[in-house]
Amino acid sequence: MTALLTPPAGRITLKQGGGGRAMRALIEKLFVKDFAALPFDGVGVGAMDDGAAIKIGDQWLVITTDSHVIHPIFFPGGDIGRISICGTVNDLAMMGATDVLAMTCAVVLEEGFSVESLEAIQRSMVAACREARAPVVTGDTKVMGRGELDGIVINTCGIGLTRTLVRDNGLSAGDAIIVTGPIGEHGLAVMAARHGIELEGDLLSDVAPINALIASILGIGGVTAMKDPTRGGVASALHEMSSKSGVGIVLQESAVPVTPAVRAVGELLGIDPLHVANEGKALIGVRADAVDAVLAALRAHPLGRHAAVIGTCVTERPGSIILDTGFGRRLLAEPDGEPLPRIC
Amino acid sequence: MTALLTPPAGRITLKQGGGGRAMRALIEKLFVKDFAALPFDGVGVGAMDDGAAIKIGDQWLVITTDSHVIHPIFFPGGDIGRISICGTVNDLAMMGATDVLAMTCAVVLEEGFSVESLEAIQRSMVAACREARAPVVTGDTKVMGRGELDGIVINTCGIGLTRTLVRDNGLSAGDAIIVTGPIGEHGLAVMAARHGIELEGDLLSDVAPINALIASILGIGGVTAMKDPTRGGVASALHEMSSKSGVGIVLQESAVPVTPAVRAVGELLGIDPLHVANEGKALIGVRADAVDAVLAALRAHPLGRHAAVIGTCVTERPGSIILDTGFGRRLLAEPDGEPLPRIC
């Protein structure tokens, strides 16, 4: 995308799966160019949005996919089953497709994987499907030998129809940036679990389907862009939105909702919550005249109670995030990758 | 499905990924029951067909998914990239959706995976997309640590629209069973490669997109059911078709096209070509009055030159395959699983 992106070396690195610059470079160099050259009429792989969209009649059919490799597979607040459903439901919602038409679920298992664990994962998937009103309609099962796979990989794909296609590149100067709730919970909950950090109070992943939350605001109008800050966190997602939209974003650090538990673990591990994955949050660009109505609607929903305006789009420094710390302003670096591999 | 199916034990076994009875038992017990209970109006997971289908206006939107774990990733006649595209294209075609609207591609890589190999796989995917006129429109990339994954897993999902939905359960007594070409090439080519068997003459996987071949016959009418004999081979696919349709199938052993190379390797390894995977073939149920026209159309296409009638549906012994060897008749056992793990 820019000359800053380094080409992939001769061997794949963990960083290239981290959701930041290194991954974007790999994807752009290896996958996007060739696939984008295939004949296709719609929002395709070249857009590098949360999914793709195809016009059918007067509606858009949105399609998205994610493979989930999270480790550990059971983590505070969720498991690989819940994240597999929610991740795909939320990607559809980010493009405006809040009613899920159908999902697929393809599971790859290691020989010797516990059937009891698989049953727990399956229960969790079904529960998330019910929350999101999303049916899994077809699937696939493969088994790899012992030592050929660490446990389980789950791929889901989702499709949905919408009349209102929302993109991640629609920001204009003057738009407000809203986040739907406190950030960093997923990434830091998983990190705390992996490092065996004991906490007073709970630090749980925020993994949840937010399609109903998003549906509650799309009728208001004034939403110009959406993206969910998963791998690479808010920092990475805002960089993508700003560079694709050709605006700068002034981010008010003190306005970003962060829970005490996230702040504590972040400080302990030396990791900025802006850089870690969320699995139940959205970043929403909103026209200034619609901010109050959107914020009120979000806060009326249980998953949006702590929604807040965290930034404003400006014409200066397109593609950059200008962090206003309250004491001054500095550019927020675009992360090279998520600090933790296998975060989703 | 029947009392014969054994419930999964406490640990996942390789057999449960093999495409036969053991896998069906796992899938039915663990996944199908709960997912099938979710509200959904269409051909869903309970049908256990090659994909699912949803009515949109006067058309059916077909959706299907597969994860690919084949080992080795480069094999005689193809590679994991080609099979990832063709497998999904062919599953759509088996339900009548021969025009591919969109595909997704999600790649999971092991840290240290060769970028050169990845580029070769990507070239192969793009070439297969061009052959099948199938655009990849969105994707996902994950990286797992060294030793956490043996190389690469590729998931693809595909969607297509059709006015003529074809199922795998539509056979009636009197229908002919056609196979579109010689069987066993994919499975035995991969096995020969793994065992280092040297052959005079080529034994190559048949991996190919057959959507154009199938499109050439759907206009004729008289197609009552289709299925592609992948994992578990012709034996497994015919068992599924016959049990779902409630018919028996008399299979003429001498009519089944088998190349000398497949016969030789099959005999050497003690494996019946009826039991091994194909990746560019279809089993087609056809009404008696349409057999000549369908066969002629298939043979006019390069991928259907050796199409042949191999069996007939009968009212006796529903769910069974009656193998007519030319010397007598016996029941063909339903395989418990593909003889080789990671065949696709």
Describe the fold and architecture.
2 copies of one chain form a homodimer. Chain A is an alpha+beta fold. Chain A folds into 2 domains: 14-162, 2-Layer Sandwich (60s Ribosomal Protein L30, Chain: A), CATH 3.30.1330.10; 176-331, Phosphoribosyl-aminoimidazole Synthetase, Chain A, domain 2 (Alpha-Beta Complex), CATH 3.90.650.10. In chain A, 29% of the residues lie in helices and 24% in strands. Chain A has 8 helices and 14 strands. Chain A has a 7-stranded mixed sheet. In chain A, helix 2 (80-94) runs parallel beside helix 3. The longest helix of chain A has 18 residues, at 115-132. The first copy, chain A, is globular. The two termini of chain A are 24 Å apart. Residues 1-5 of chain A have low confidence and may be disordered. At the A-B interface, helix 1, strand 1, strand 2, strand 5 and helix 3 of A face helix 1, strand 1, strand 2, strand 5 and helix 3 of B.
Identify the notable features of this structure and list them briefly.
2 domains, homodimer, 60s Ribosomal Protein L30, Chain: A, alpha+beta, 14 strands, five-stranded mixed beta sheet, 344 residues, Phosphoribosyl-aminoimidazole Synthetase, Chain A, domain 2, seven-stranded mixed beta sheet
